């Protein structure tokens, strides 16, 4: 039996790509021949993955694991393959978010949702990163068994040395608020900026805000954010752009609060990253954000900049509250630990594979 994985694109350091590596490790440790293939050419991945043009013929005894996250280039081929199929769903951002900012992205996401619906009867089994994602699949017509296993993160990577120049520059006693995530309209960075502006005016004039993430392909939205910052006349809003991993670690090291205003997350990895650094989280309750936090952090359901600013002030200045939040996040982080989630993912995959073997026998 061969068990192969296919991704739309493989990017080193990306959560979905890393999850594929975890699955490969699980399968090879169980004695299965396993390779990863990508639909787009990816020279940066080196020998880690192969292109789907090299995908071998798959028979009824083989299994294909397809990571569903964006439009499916091999859709018709996927539907016709005689092998058993597992879908791993990482969510697709609703295309409406991109309508004003990037028509190409808007169309990609629209097609991705069309593809998801088109594949509803293709998979024998699915795994979703969250209950929120599980419900997406059900809404799109998926009738196969679906298990929920959060993204498996290698937390050891986050113990590496941060960029010392950034730590030294910004670890100066001033309050540092961060949001980590690509600059994109569903992330609602304008709401983060608005709450920060209110906090700065009403509580701490020396506070800083770091918007950590790339604005690639979202340049129009980034220009709108720049204009908004200028319009409301707020200082100390710093956009880092795309940065290397050691700089990401540095921003987590210097952060006093992680503020999330996102309105669509299939599973919010940066929230878990913030937990690793004991950064108290304040987040708008939407999509899979409450599920990712799992009862930790502070959730709010109404976007009022002044109220959010008050929450930030309490978290920064109330040591007892701060400690309580961090302890809750540590507990949640233990539930999301690499070993626990890898064990759960292994059980889900092996249950399906063993059931498949028994059916063949």
Compile the SSE list and pairings:
Blueprint: E1 2-7, H1 15-29, E2 33-38, E3 50-51, E4 63-68, H2 75-80, E5 84-89, H3 103-118, E6 125-128, H4 131-139, E7 146-148, H5 164-170, E8 176-180, H6 189-202, E9 208-212, H7 219-232, E10 237-241, H8 245-254, E11 257-260, H9 269-276, E12 281-284, H10 289-293, E13 298-300, H11 305-317, H12 319-335, H13 338-360
Parallel strand pairs: 1-2, 1-4, 2-3, 4-5, 5-6, 6-7, 8-9, 8-11, 9-10, 11-12, 12-13
Summarize the structure.
With 361 residues, the protein is α/β, with parallel strands linked by helices. It has 2 domains: 2-153 and 338-360, Rossmann fold, CATH 3.40.50; 155-335, Glycogen Phosphorylase B (Rossmann fold, 3-Layer(aba) Sandwich). The chain is built from 13 helices and 13 strands.
Provide a descriptive summary of the structure in words:
The chain is of the alpha/beta class. It has 2 domains: 2-153 and 338-360, Rossmann fold (3-Layer(aba) Sandwich), CATH 3.40.50; 155-335, Glycogen Phosphorylase B (Rossmann fold, 3-Layer(aba) Sandwich). Helices cover 43% and strands 16% of the residues. It is built from 13 helices and 13 strands. It has helices at residues 15-29, 75-80, 103-118, 131-139, 164-170, 189-202, 219-232, 245-254, 269-276, 289-293, 305-317, 319-335, 338-360; strands spanning 2-7, 33-38, 50-51, 63-68, 84-89, 125-128, 146-148, 176-180, 208-212, 237-241, 257-260, 281-284, 298-300. The strands form 2 sheets. The protein has a 7-stranded parallel sheet with strand order 3-2-1-4-5-6-7, sandwiched between helices. Strands 10-9-8-11-12-13 form a 6-stranded parallel sheet, with helices on both faces. Helix 10 links the parallel strand 12 (281-284) and strand 13 (298-300). Helix 5 packs parallel to helix 8 (245-254), helix 6 (189-202) runs parallel beside helix 7 (219-232) and helix 6 packs across helix 11 (305-317). The longest helix has 23 residues, at 338-360. The chain is globular, with a radius of gyration of 21 Å. The two termini are 13 Å apart.
């Amino acid at each position: 039996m061969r068990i192969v994985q296919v991704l739309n694109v493989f990017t080193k350091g990306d959560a979905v790509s890393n999850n594929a590596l975890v699955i490969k490790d699980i399968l090879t440790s169980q004695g299965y021949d396993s390779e990863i293939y990508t639909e787009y050419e990816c020279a940066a991945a080196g020998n880690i993955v192969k292109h789907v043009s090299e995908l071998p013929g798959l028979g009824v005894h083989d299994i294909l694991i397809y990571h569903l996250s964006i439009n499916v280039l091999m859709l018709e081929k996927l539907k016709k393959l005689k092998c058993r199929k597992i879908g791993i769903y990482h969510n697709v951002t609703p295309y409406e978010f991109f309508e004003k900012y990037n028509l190409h992205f808007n169309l990609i996401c629209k097609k991705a949702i069309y593809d998801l619906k088109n594949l509803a009867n293709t998979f024998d089994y699915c795994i979703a990163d969250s209950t929120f994602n599980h419900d997406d699949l059900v809404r799109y017509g998926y009738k196969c068994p679906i298990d929920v296993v959060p993204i498996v993160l290698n937390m050891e990577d986050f113990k590496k040395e941060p960029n010392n120049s950034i730590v030294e520059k910004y670890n100066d006693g001033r309050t540092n608020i961060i949001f980590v995530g690509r600059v994109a309209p569903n992330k609602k960075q304008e709401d983060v900026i608005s709450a920060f502006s209110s906090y700065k005016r009403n509580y701490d004039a020396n506070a800083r805000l770091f918007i950590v993430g790339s604005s690639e392909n979202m340049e129009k939205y980034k220009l709108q954010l720049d204009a908004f910052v200028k319009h409301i006349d707020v200082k100390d809003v710093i956009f880092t752009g795309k940065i290397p991993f050691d700089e990401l670690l540095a921003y987590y090291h210097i952060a006093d609060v992680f503020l999330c205003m996102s309105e669509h997350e299939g599973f919010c990895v940066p929230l878990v990253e913030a937990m690793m650094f004991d950064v108290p989280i304040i987040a708008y309750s939407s999509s899979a954000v409450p599920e990712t936090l799992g009862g930790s952090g502070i959730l709010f359901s109404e976007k009022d900049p002044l109220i959010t600013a008050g929450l930030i002030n309490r978290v920064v200045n109330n040591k007892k509250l701060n400690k309580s939040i961090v302890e809750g996040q540590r507990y949640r982080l233990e539930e999301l630990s690499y070993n626990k989630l890898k064990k759960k993912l292994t059980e889900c995959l092996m249950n399906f594979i063993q059931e498949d073997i028994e059916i063949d026998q």
